[in-house]
Amino acid sequence: MKRPISIPYVLRKLEELYDPPKSFLDWETPLDLTVATILSAQCTDARVNIVTKTLFRRCRTSQDYVALSRAQLEDLVHSCGTFRNKARFIQELCALLLERHGGKVPATMQELTALPGIGRKTAAIILYAAFGKQEGIAVDTHVMRLAQRLGLTKQTYPDKIALELEKQTPRSKWGRLNTLMISHGRAICTARRPKCEECVFKKCCPSSRVRS
């Protein structure tokens, strides 16, 4: 019978393999990151990074986004999918940033999640990458898949998975765990054809296809 895998073990083994950035999205300012993170919902980071090359040249401030017509912004973000909702969220968010925060992105979970299009996961990403704050583990599809396959959780909802992972992980490593798990999910533990033979956890993972 395979022994349960612990978070400290996962961190140690993944840190031997990867040194990921704080965010896989391209950005310069907290506003850039916030907009890019909104666009990344149900869209690949690679596609978002292509779109934001043009978008960020056009829009540098909250006022720039508000000044665009909705149709112009929709056209700029069209290829990210659900573009009408995303354009609306971005413009409503920027209007509130101007009204409440002088056009700047706030640096607290409470203030961020009060903005349109910003949930707990998105806020955790922004706070870690832009402000160096450990306010939560952002559970995307990669983190969820690895957590479930490695037996780190039996939960099926992202928020519940995040809470379980946070209980098991030193707070100083919350953001790091997120990016490490994404790296492994992209490289090895893919959704359809996981490369179990190449996985560092192949002998202890309860989901491994490699027979010990």
Structure overview:
By secondary structure, the chain is mainly alpha-helical. The protein has two domains: 7-20 and 137-198, Helix-hairpin-Helix base-excision DNA repair enzymes (C-terminal) (Endonuclease Iii, domain 2, Orthogonal Bundle), CATH 1.10.1670.10; 30-131, Endonuclease III, domain 1, CATH 1.10.340. It is built from eleven helices and no strands. The radius of gyration is 18 Å and the shape is elongated. It starts with 6 loop residues before the first helix and ends in a 25-residue tail after the last helix.
Give the tally of structural domains. Answer: 2
Poorly predicted segments: none
Number of helices: 11
- By secondary-structure content and strand pairing, the structural class works out as mainly alpha
Structure in a nutshell:
The chain has 212 residues and is mostly helical. Helix content is 56%, strand content 0%.
